[in-house]
Amino acid sequence: MELSQNITASSNHINRAEILEDSEWLELEAFQKQVYLSMRDLVIFFTILIIPGNTLVLIATWKERRLHQPNKYFLAFLAVADLLVGLFVAPFFAYQTDLEYTSSDRDNMSIHLCRFMLWMDTFALTTSIYSLTTISLDRYLKISKPLLYKSRMTTSRSIKIIFVIVLISTTLATYSATARSGSSGILGTGTGPCSWDADFEKSTIFYLGLTISVFFLPVLVIVIMYTLIFHVAHKRNKMLVDGNLGQTINNQNERTALRRDMKVIRMLLVVVGVFLLCWGPLFTWILMKYLNTIDRENTSLSFEYRMHVFAGIANTLPFFNSLCNPIIYVCLDQTYQEAFKRIFRRMMRRQEARRQQPPIELRPPRA
């Protein structure tokens, strides 16, 4: 009798522990759902702001003659990549998240739509990072060799460079959209309803190669270029201050040009800094996932909560990056500030002209 009571008590204790454990994991699943639905709402909010901001940059580049320069074309191409994020990647991401966590019909998404989402995901990221890399190389050429810059960096050459970036991005995006690549998209647009259970070994090879070629190597080039830029600019500025170049009119013009270039460089540094801040956590998460640095079998429940929060932040920040770049242009680049002001003035004048137009009177026909 006593033995049976002990067995019953121990079995009740085990059942309570299992029930408690099950309830905790159910709470974790509910928390995960809340995190991703909050991500969906944030992405929708970012989308509303991404589209008009980057569209304004493209309109300003098209309308203003002062922005018809090779370096501004690279910035416009960066705006195109951000606009693609706002038009396609962000809405698809929000739709897929909503489908995965709120819809019971989550498995009926078209495979062609899934592959297009993967393609656009990879293309937009690749064009962004390679545009920033090209911008850093362009700035170094202008600062280090200002006399040769105009002859070397022409409009036709800048268009050719943009075409090369498009070609590389298209090739990588097309490969990532195939099932054999093991890709699920940079922003995870191939997971959930679009997941086709790619081989983990293929996914590991793809993502490690992508992280190196599309993030770490370009970032290394960008850091080296801006370090050299500040070294050259500091050296030239010191020579001008010390009077080693004399005080001719040409040197005064060079001083003014140097100050203007340094303001542009500061703006581009902010652009690059925001890019690293927004994309760094995501690639850190990718490395943690595919290098098996997380032992999910031996993790605590609190660790799982923290990982879900980190994953949510890492997957949301890249969309915030596409929102930030037009704001940075307005705040730090005087040329864009003046261009945006002129555009808004023209819009206000047109609205006032429409209001002041006299109403059209309809006269009855003569008998």
Topology:
Elements: H1 2-63, H2 70-102, H3 111-144, H4 146-152, H5 155-176, H6 200-242, H7 249-290, H8 301-332, H9 334-356
Helix pairs in contact: 1-2, 1-8, 1-9, 2-3, 2-5, 2-8, 3-4, 3-5, 3-6, 3-7, 6-7, 7-8, 8-9
Computed structural class: mainly alpha
Name the overall outline.
globular
Order of helices and strands: HHHHHHHHH
Please describe the biggest sheet, giving its number of strands, its sense, and whether it closes into a barrel.
none
- Low-confidence segments, ≥5 residues, pLDDT <50? 1-20
Q: How many alpha or pi helices? A: 9
- Helix share of residues? over 70%
* Average pLDDT figure: 78
Strand percent estimate: under 5%
Q: What's the total number of strands?
A: 0
As a whole number of angstroms, the C-alpha radius of gyration is 27 Å
Explained architecture:
- The chain has helices spanning 2-63, 70-102, 111-144, 146-152, 155-176, 200-242, 249-290, 301-332, 334-356.
- The protein is globular and about 75 Å long.
- Residues 1-20 have low confidence and may be disordered.
- The longest helix has 62 residues, at 2-63.
- The protein is built from 9 helices and no strands.
- Helix 2 (70-102) runs parallel beside helix 5 (155-176) and helix 8 packs across helix 9.
- Helices cover 81% and strands 0% of the residues.
- It is mainly α.
